[in-house]
């Protein structure tokens, strides 16, 4: 099972005025590093479709792919709350299957909760999963799994009518029992109003500074994704450049016969080497 942090502790952070830090992870090494760094929530995001697998859409990953990565992440998590991002096909196409797949994230991959994006039947599915004993984090605003229905990857809630619709979704999800809501690509003042109105924490994903917490895709944060990134994705370090420089140096060392040197090779004693030569030569 995931780390020491609990859903109740995440809820309490809002009451205590403590900011919630959330990042994505898709494998054991990154999960270990991120967990040791002190984040509160680690999300096994379906963004792995883009940043890890090179696929064009988050809809291109299924439950088995997500569970494969979630199991690896779980092995590296000791402290943070681990949340599994349910892929499109696991809950939006067949609502009867949603609870079963949510349980797989908990029972097979050790997640403490799951995350669902808003869709037409989101309230019903959220309630069914919660009633089965699994905590749910929801996601409104720009929902990548159904971005085609929203006019593409663009800011949502920029006019009063659209903003009110997002607010209504957030209210309904809180009433349904979810423990937290991700607000993606909505105006910061709308996010501020929603955050003040809800009793549960809001997590900003490009929704400004007024939410109860912030989330980024780790590969954007560390410079390991070369595709198009959103305006809010701040790069803190450029690990990709460091890796590229290291690989170039390795290539040069091999081609110029500088690697491996004696310090990176194993040796045999002259005595044993002489015995070998006497036998084979």
List keywords for this structure.
281 residues, alpha/beta, 43% helix, 14% strand, TIM Barrel
Kindly describe this structure.
The protein has 281 residues and is α/β, with parallel strands linked by helices. It folds into 2 domains: 7-237, TIM Barrel (Alpha-Beta Barrel), CATH 3.20.20.60; 242-280, no CATH class. 43% of the residues lie in helices and 14% in strands. It contains 12 helices and 8 strands. It has helices at residues 7-15, 28-36, 48-51, 63-76, 88-91, 95-107, 122-131, 160-176, 188-197, 218-221, 239-255, 270-280; strands at residues 20-24, 41-44, 81-85, 113-117, 136-141, 180-184, 202-205, 213-216. The chain has an 8-stranded parallel barrel with strand order 1-2-3-4-5-6-7-8, surrounded by 7 helices. Strand 6, helix 9 and strand 7 (202-205) form a beta-alpha-beta unit. Helix 2 crosses helix 4 (63-76). The longest helix has 17 residues, at 160-176. The chain is elongated, with a radius of gyration of 23 Å. It starts with 6 loop residues before the first helix and ends with a helix. The model has no long low-confidence stretch (mean pLDDT 96).
């Amino acid at each position: 099972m995931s780390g020491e942090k609990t859903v109740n502790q995440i809820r309490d952070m809002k009451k205590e005025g403590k900011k919630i830090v959330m990042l994505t992870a898709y494998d054991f090494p990154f999960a270990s590093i991120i967990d040791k760094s002190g984040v509160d929530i680690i999300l096994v995001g379906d963004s792995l479709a883009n940043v890890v697998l090179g696929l064009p859409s988050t809809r291109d990953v299924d439950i088995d792919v997500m569970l494969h990565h979630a199991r690896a992440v779980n092995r590296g998590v000791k402290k943070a709350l681990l949340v599994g991002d349910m892929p499109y096909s696991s809950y939006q196409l067949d609502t009867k299957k949603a609870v079963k797949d949510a349980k797989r994230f908990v029972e097979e991959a050790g997640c403490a909760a799951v995350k669902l994006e808003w869709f037409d039947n989101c309230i019903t599915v959220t309630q069914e999963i919660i009633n089965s004993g699994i905590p749910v984090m929801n996601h409104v605003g720009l929902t990548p799994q159904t971005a085609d229905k929203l006019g593409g990857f663009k800011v949502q809630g920029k006019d009063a009518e659209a903003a009110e619709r997002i607010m209504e979704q957030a209210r309904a999800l809180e009433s349904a029992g979810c423990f937290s809501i991700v607000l993606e690509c909505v105006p910061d003042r709308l996010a501020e109003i929603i955050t003040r109105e809800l009793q549960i924490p809001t997590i900003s994903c490009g929704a400004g500074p007024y939410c109860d917490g912030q989330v980024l895709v780790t590969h954007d944060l560390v410079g390991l994704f070369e595709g198009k990134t959103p305006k809010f994705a701040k790069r803190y370090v450029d690990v990709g450049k460091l890796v590229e420089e290291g690989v170039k140096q390795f290539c040069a060392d091999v081609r110029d016969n500088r690697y491996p040197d004696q310090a990176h090779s194993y040796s045999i004693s002259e005595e044993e080497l002489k015995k070998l030569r006497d036998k084979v030569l």
